[in-house]
Write a structure and sequence with these properties.
Beta Polymerase, domain 2; four-stranded mixed β-sheet; alpha+beta; 878 residues; globular; 37 helices; Four Helix Bundle (Hemerythrin (Met), subunit A)
Length: 878
C-alpha cells in the first residue's frame, strides 16, 4: 500500500491526529533505530547526526503531506495561504543528536490566514504527541528579515536555514534574500555578538577547558565553539555551504583536518551521551564516562584504564578546538573584521589602524596590547625564540596575539633535543616559571600551543590526562598550572588571610626555581609503572638535568617530587600531638628549607585540586605539624595543642552531670563539637552513629583520654553542602547537641533521619577497600588506617567494629578524597597497650574490610566502573 493511500485512510479515520501520530511514531522509531545501529557500528559521529536529522526530515515531510494534502487540502491555495516549513539552527545544518530539539520556522508571505494557522497548529500538536521538543516560530517574510537585522540569535539560526516541507519556492526565495542582506552587511557586529555569547556560555558551563566532567556542547572546547566558527564563516560567505569558502581561506590544511576530526569526535560523544542517559544530556559526567568510552571502542592499555585514555583524547581535542578558535581570530583581525584588544573596546564604525611597538628583541612586536612576531621566519631563524616569546610576553605583561599563537603551533617541528638543552631556552623558561609576573597565564598559553609538552617531554605525557575519581576537578596538567598560580598568589600576598604561615615563609625560601620546578613536575609520574612517586622522581631528575640544574638542585627537586604528599599525609592521617609522629616526619624532611618548600608546595597542591577542597581545618593541621617540626629542628619543645578554658570548664561540668557538650559553629570552615564524658568502650562509635543519623559529615576528630578516665572528644562536622553544620539550620545543631548529651551521659539517643540515597555519580566508582595496620608510627598505640568507598555511616560502622573488638580509640583522623574515604584510628587494647596479637590483628582487618564493603547498593542501573588503583598516592592531592 502506497504512502498516499495510508495517509488518506488516516485522514478519514475518526481520530486523524491519533492515527497519524501512530504512523509517524513507527516511521521515526525505525529511522532512529537505524541511526543508532550505525553509531554502534562505529560510523562517524557527524554522519550519524545527519541520519538523525534525516529521520526528523522524513517525519515532518510526511506530516506536512498528511496535513496539507489529505486533512486540510487546498488544490488552489491563494498567495496568502502559502506556507513553508524551515529547519533552522543545528537542525538546519542537517545534524541532530538523538534527543535534540527541532528548531522550526513556519514562514508565510504576509499576515496569517486561517488555513496556515490550522496547518501550523495541527503539525505542532502532532510533533508534541510524538514526544518531540520543538522550538518554533511563525513569521512572515518581512518579519523574518527585520528580526534577522536586529537580533543576532535569529540571524544565527537563519544562517543555517533550509526548507524541509511546504512551499519550497517561498522558503528558498526568503533564504536567498536573507543571505544577500548578510553579504552586504558589516560582519563585525555579528562576530562580536558570537564571541560575547561564547564567553558567556563558557562562564556558565565552566571557564576552564579542562574540568573533568565537561559539557560537550556548551563547555570550552566543545561543539558550540566549533559551531561559532561555522557561524562566523557563514556570515562572511553566506552562499558557501557551511562557510567552507571562508574556512579554506582562514585555516591551513592541517587545521581544517583537525576541525573535521574534532567535529566528528565530539558529535560521536554527544550522540552516545544522549543514548546512554536516555535524554538530552550534554555533560559527560563520571557515571556516563565509562559507558561512553566502552561504546566508542576504547580499551585500557597497561595501567591506564579505557575511561582515562578516552578522556585524555577528549581534552586534547578540546585543546585543538581552542587553537582553531585563535587561528580564526587571527585571520579576522588581519582582515579588520574583528577589533584587536577585546570586545569591550570594539568600535564598529571604523577600522582602527594596526599599531606596532618595537621591543628590545626585534623578533617580537607589541600590537594592539598583545605580543606578536615581527615576521614569518622568526622561529626558523632561531628556535630559542619559541621559548623567549613567552618570556617576553610575561616581562611586558602582554597577552599573546592570535598571529603569534598560530605561528607557534605551526612551528612545533622546530623543537629538537638541542633546543631542549639550550641554556638560553632553559633560562628563559625558568624566568617565566619562577620569576614571572603571571606564570599561570603564560604557561597555560604555552600549554595550549603544544609547546610546553614538546619542550618538556615529561610534561607532554600528562597533557589532558585525567584521573577517574571525584576528587580531582581538573586534568593533571591544568591542576598543576593552577598550583603554580597559587604559589604566585601566595608570594604576592593575595592569599594571606587563608594562608598566613605560607605567605610568610614563601619569602624565606632560598631557591624559588627549585620550588617551582618541583611544583611543575610533581605529578609527571602519574600512571607510571613504578607508581606516581618513584616515576615522578626519576622524570624530575631527568628534566632538571636537561634544563641545566646542578646535581644538588636537581636532587632537591627530585626529593620534593618524591615526597610532595608527605606533609598532607602526616597532617591529615596521623596524630600530630604524638611526639613519635613529629620525629618521624622530621627525620623524613631533614632540614628547615625542605620543610618550608614542602609546606608551600602542599598548600598549593591541595588548593588546585578543586574549588572546594581546601578548608581551614586542613590548614590548621598543617600549621600544627609545621610548628612542631620546626621546633624540633631548633631543639625546642613542640607547641602543645591544649584545650582552652571553655573546654576545661566543659570537662568540669561533665564530672557533675555525667556528660556535657559544647558546639561552636563556623570554626575553620566546620562546626567544632566538644564532648566531655567518662570513658567507656564504644563511646566514639555511639557519637559517630548519632552524627551520621543527623546528617553531619565528620571532617576531623581529636580524642583525648586522661589517666583518670575523663574523655574530651573534639570533632569537626559539616553539612552535606560542605558548610559548617548548623549554620544554615541552627535547629539541627541544637537537636544534635541534645542527642550527644544523652550519649555522653550513657543514655540512648533517637535516630533522627534515614541515610541519604547514594548518588549515581558515586555509584560509578568501585573503590577497593584497603586496611593497613601500623605498629611503628606510635609508641603508645596501634595505628589502623582504613580506606574505601565513602558513604553515609562509614565512620560509625568502622568505630563500631573497633569497639566490638574490645579496643579503645585514642584519636581518630578523618579525610576524604572524592569518592574515597581514608579514616585513621589510634587504638589500644584493654590493657592500654598496642595490639600485637597476630590473630587479633587479622580479625580486626577482616572485620574492618567487611564493614567497608557493606556499602548500600547504588540506585542507578548503569554499569559501575572500577576506579584506577595504580597507586594509592594517586588518590591524594597531587
Amino acid at each position: 500500500m502506497s504512502d498516499d493511500v495510508v495517509l488518506a485512510d488516516a485522514a478519514r479515520s475518526a481520530k486523524p491526529r491519533a492515527a497519524i501520530t501512530a504512523i509517524l511514531f513507527e516511521q521515526w522509531d525505525a529511522a532512529r533505530h537505524k541511526a543508532r545501529a550505525r553509531l554502534e557500528a562505529g560510523v562517524p559521529g557527524v554522519e550519524v547526526a545527519r541520519l538523525y536529522a534525516a529521520a526528523a526530515d522524513g517525519v515532518i515531510d510526511t506530516l506536512w503531506r498528511f496535513t496539507a494534502e489529505h486533512l486540510h487540502p487546498a488544490p488552489n491555495p491563494t498567495e496568502a495561504e502559502r506556507l513553508s516549513v524551515l529547519a533552522v539552527g543545528g537542525y538546519g545544518r542537517g545534524v541532530l543528536a538523538p534527543f535534540s530539539d527541532l528548531d522550526l520556522v513556519f514562514l508565510r508571505p504576509w499576515k496569517t490566514t486561517a488555513r496556515s494557522e490550522t496547518l501550523t497548529e495541527f503539525m505542532l500538536y502532532v510533533l508534541w504527541d510524538l514526544g518531540a521538543k520543538v522550538g518554533s516560530a511563525v513569521r512572515s517574510v518581512d518579519e523574518g528579515l527585520k528580526l534577522a537585522r536586529s537580533d543576532m540569535t535569529v540571524r544565527t539560526a537563519l544562517l543555517e536555514g533550509r526548507v524541509i516541507a511546504g512551499d519550497t519556492e517561498l522558503g528558498d526565495s526568503f533564504l536567498a534574500r536573507f543571505r544577500r542582506e548578510v553579504e552586504k552587511a558589516d560582519p563585525r557586529p555579528f562576530i562580536a555578538a558570537k564571541l560575547a555569547e561564547r564567553d558567556l556560555r563558557h562562564q556558565k558551563a565552566g571557564a576552564v577547558r579542562y574540568r573533568v566532567e565537561p559539557n560537550v556542547k556548551d563547555g570550552k572546547g566543545g561543539l558550540r565553539d566549533l559551531n561559532a566558527l561555522f557561524w562566523i564563516a557563514r556570515s562572511l560567505s553566506p552562499d558557501s555551504p557551511l562557510g567552507e569558502a571562508t574556512l579554506r581561506d582562514m585555516l591551513t590544511g592541517r587545521e581544517r583536518r583537525l576541525f573535521r576530526e574534532a567535529f566528528d569526535f565530539l558529535w560521536s560523544i554527544r550522540c552516545h551521551i544522549h543514548l546512554t542517559s536516555g535524554r538530552a544530556e550534554e555533560k559527560l559526567t563520571f557515571d556516563l564516562q565509562p559507558e561512553v568510552a566502552r561504546r566508542m571502542g576504547w580499551r585500557g592499555r597497561g595501567d591506564e584504564p579505557a575511561v582515562e585514555r578516552f578522556m585524555r583524547r577528549y581534552f586534547i581535542v578540546a585543546r585543538d578546538v581552542g587553537a582553531l578558535t585563535r587561528a580564526v581570530s587571527a585571520q579576522l583581525e588581519a582582515r579588520g573584521q574583528k577589533q584587536a584588544g577585546g570586545l569591550a573596546r570594539l568600535d564598529l564604525t571604523r577600522l582602527i589602524p594596526r599599531r606596532r611597538k618595537l621591543l628590545d628583541d626585534p623578533a617580537f612586536v607589541a600590537e594592539g596590547g598583545r605580543l606578536t612576531v615581527a615576521g614569518p621566519d622568526v622561529f626558523s631563524e632561531d628556535p630559542t625564540r619559541l621559548i623567549r616569546l613567552f618570556a617576553a610576553a610575561d616581562a611586558q605583561d602582554l597577552d599573546l596575539h592570535p598571529d603569534a599563537f598560530s605561528a607557534v603551533t605551526r612551528s612545533l617541528g622546530l623543537v629538537s633535543p638541542a633546543l631542549r638543552r639550550d641554556p638560553e631556552a632553559g633560562e628563559a623558561f625558568l624566568q617565566v616559571l619562577a620569576h614571572g609576573q603571571r606564570p599561570y597565564r603564560v604557561l597555560s598559553i604555552m600549554n595550549e600551543t603544544g609547546l610546553l609538552g614538546r619542550f618538556l617531554p615529561e610534561w607532554g605525557r600528562i597533557v589532558g590526562q585525567t584521573q577517574f575519581n571525584m576528587y580531582h576537578a581538573y586534568t593533571v596538567d591544568e591542576h598543576t598550572l593552577q598550583a603554580i598560580g597559587v604559589i604566585n598568589d601566595i608570594a604576592r600576598g593575595k592569599l594571606k588571610d587563608d594562608h598566613p604561615l605560607a605567605s610568610v615563609i614563601v619569602h624565606r625560601i632560598a631557591d624559588p626555581e627549585v620550588l617551582m620546578l618541583a611544583m611543575l613536575l610533581h605529578d609527571v609520574g602519574k600512571g607510571g609503572d613504578r607508581g606516581q612517586l618513584e616515576d615522578g622522581e626519576i622524570a624530575a631528575r631527568r628534566a632538571c638535568e636537561r634544563l641545566g640544574l646542578d646535581r644538588r638542585r636537581a636532587e632537591l627537586v627530585a626529593w620534593l617530587v618524591r615526597h610532595h604528599l608527605a606533609l598532607s599525609d602526616f597532617a591529615q592521617k596521623r596524630d600530630t600531638s604524638d611526639p613519635a609522629t613529629v620525629r618521624a616526619f622530621a627525620e623524613l624532611v631533614g632540614d628547615p628549607e625542605r620543610l618550608r618548600m614542602l609546606l608551600v608546595l602542599t598548600v598549593a597542591d591541595i588548593r588546585a585540586v578543586g574549588p572546594t577542597v581546601w578548608n581551614g581545618w586542613k590548614g590548621q593541621l598543617m600549621r600544627q605539624l609545621y610548628a612542631a617540626t620546626e621546633a624540633l629542628f631548633r631543639g625546642e619543645d613542640a607547641p602543645t595543642d591544649e584545650p582552652d578554658p571553655e573546654q576545661l570548664a566543659l570537662v568540669a561540668r561533665a564530672e557533675s552531670s555525667g556528660g556535657a557538650v559544647l558546639a561552636r559553629p563556623g570554626q575553620v570552615d566546620a562546626t567544632e563539637v566538644a564532648i566531655a564524658a567518662r570513658d567507656r568502650t564504644g563511646l566514639f562509635a555511639e557519637i559517630a552513629e548519632v552524627m551520621a543519623s543527623a546528617g553531619a559529615d565528620v571532617v576531623g576528630a581529636r580524642l583525648q583520654t586522661a589517666p583518670d578516665g575523663a574523655v574530651l572528644d573534639r570533632i569537626l562536622i559539616q553539612d552535606g553542602a560542605g558548610a559548617p553544620y548548623g549554620r544554615a539550620e541552627p535547629r539541627r545543631l541544637k537537636a544534635l547537641v541534645s542527642d550527644l548529651e544523652r550519649v555522653a551521659r550513657g543514655e540512648s539517643a533517637p535516630r533522627r533521619r534515614g541515610d541519604p540515597t547514594p548518588s549515581a555519580r558515586r555509584a560509578a566508582f568501585d573503590v577497593r577497600p584497603v586496611v593497613m595496620i601500623d605498629n611503628q608510627t606510635s609508641e603508645a598505640a596501634t595505628v589502623v588506617e582504613v580506606s574505601g568507598a565513602d558513604r553515609p555511616r562509614l565512620l560509625a560502622d568502622l568505630a563500631r567494629v573497633i569497639a566490638d573488638q574490645d579496643l579503645s580509640i585514642r584519636s581518630a583522623h578523618v579525610a576524604s578524597f572524592g569518592e574515597r574515604a581514608v579514616d585513621s584510628f589510634y587504638v589500644v587494647a584493654a590493657d592500654g597497650r598496642r595490639l600485637t596479637s597476630k590473630s587479633r590483628l587479622a580479625a580486626l582487618t577482616e572485620a574492618l574490610t567487611a564493614a567497608v564493603e557493606r556499602a548500600p547498593e547504588p540506585s542507578s542501573s548503569r554499569p559501575r566502573a572500577r576506579a584506577s588503583m595504580r597507586d594509592v598516592s594517586e588518590l591524594r592531592p597531587g
